[in-house]
Amino acid sequence: MAYSQPLNSNLNERVAQHKQPSLVFFSGGSALSGFSKALKLYNQNHNHIITTLDSGGCTAKLRHCFLMPAIGDIRNRLLALADDSKADVAAITRIMGLRFAKQGSAATLRQSLFAFSHSDHPMYAQLSPTQQQTIQNCLSYFANIIPADFDLRNTSIGNVCLAAAYLINNRSLSAAIDIFSHLLSIKGQIVPMSDSYCHLAAHLSDGQTIVGQHNLTGKEVSPIRSKITKVELSSSSEYLSPIQIKTPKNVLNTLAQAQLICYPPGSFYSSLITNLLTDGIGQAISQSQAKKVYVPNLTQDPEQFGMSLFDCITTLLEYLTKHLDHKVSVSSVLSTILLDKSAQHQLTPAQYQQLSKLGIAVEILPLVSEKSAPYYDPHRLSQALLSLC
After folding, report:
1. DSSP secondary structure string, 130-150?
2. Do you know which Gene3D superfamilies this protein is assigned to (predicted)?
């Protein structure tokens, strides 16, 4: 743990009083990986609603080949929540973290895939027969269905396993997640935002329309140089083709049972706002009795080009209330903003007053430690969120 003192005098008592409240996080990508590993030490009743619109890396190859939702962010969160104190789970975590070589002929890489699926492979040494069979079945199935020209270079074994489980189970992403949640003994729950095949589209202030999550994050292509004015879902990855998708029932049920709903740090549009684009999500959040907490980014996010902290807050509210009756209180979708003390000056006195009039509280706590700077200390943030329940 990166700190020894409580954030405030009542924190330990408040956490102890609510040992296992139900927490919900809207996220994607890798921003919450470290936090998730810390959170599972304090609470195992947390649910991660994960975006399925990633369009970069090896996920893009799987999506294009099988017209499927993205699974890379799901794999990442599965590994973060895995109970790797168990030797067999730690072994499965290592397997799912493996990748094919970055270079090599198609034939050589395919031979590697068949080798991975063979029972004699040393990576299975610590697994039970059932665990081994599950992973072997996924890899063997995948090896037999991919087209001859499928590019295996740098492809994640974990993504391959999840993709195969998804296809084997009649294209049920929830079924695939359940299989590997069990194998990895995860502490928490993972819920996909949708099983649908769709993509993220963004409209910029300079008139551009960009389709594809990977074109926004600033990781695989140059960062955007114009402010995002709107994002929406597209049925095509090549051009804008607007599509409406209903919020899945398991997402609605998860929100209904929550005691705290968190809009956490991460890519603002492609990890957070994306999760709020399905029909009915705003209403479900507003009807939940949970506290709704926004934890803004501390460091520069390419997707927040041209945006202040207050801009992020108002944009979040815009998407949360988009389809709600105007009589619905704003505080029903956002009740608290959790700020590190280093960020408190990013809001003006007038903005603090405006938030107060909306019924939105701002809590300022020391959430960054010397060890974690410039990022949130995952232990401090975990305890701070639990103290709000």
Report:
1. HHHHHHHHHHHHHHHHS-TT-
2. CofD-like domains (3.40.50.10680)
* Residue ranges in 45-190 assigned as alpha helix (H): 57-66, 72-81, 87-96, 106-116, 129-145, 157-168, 173-183
Q: How far apart are CA 167 and CA 383, in angstroms?
A: 39
Indicate the pairing of strand 336-340 with strand 46-50.
unpaired
Reported as a single tens digit per residue, the pLDDT across 92-122 is 999 999 999 999 998 999 999 999 998 889 9
Nearest Cα neighbor of 294 from 213, 358, 373, 247 is: 358
CB-CB neighbours of 126 under 10 Å: 17
Digit-coded pLDDT (tens) for 256-308: 999 999 999 999 999 999 999 999 999 999 999 999 999 999 999 999 999 99
Neighbours of 242 (CB within 10 A): 11
What is the second-level CATH architecture of the domain 11-53+243-387? 3-Layer(aba) Sandwich (3.40)
Q: Which residues contact 354 (CB under 8 A, 6 or more apart)?
A: none
Sorted by where each begins, the domain ranges of the chain are: 11-53+243-387, 57-190
pLDDT, tens digit, 9 for 90 and up, residues 140-158: 999 999 999 999 999 999 9
Cα distance between residue 7 and residue 26, in whole Å: 24
| Closest among 47, 11, 72 to 252, alpha carbons compared | 47
d(CA 222, CA 216) in angstroms, rounded, equals 9
For the chain, the residue count is: 389
Distances (CA, A) of 210 to 52, 53, 201, 226, 319: 17, 14, 6, 11, 19
| For the chain, percent of residues with pLDDT exceeding 70 | 95
Residue whose pair of structure tokens reads 């003192």 in the numeric block: 5
Nearest Cα to 23, choosing from 188, 138, 231?
188
**Cα–Cα separations (whole angstroms), residue 67 to 63, 109, 220, 237:** 5, 23, 21, 10
Q: Is the pTM of this model over 0.90?
A: yes
Residue whose structure tokens are 């000056």:
345
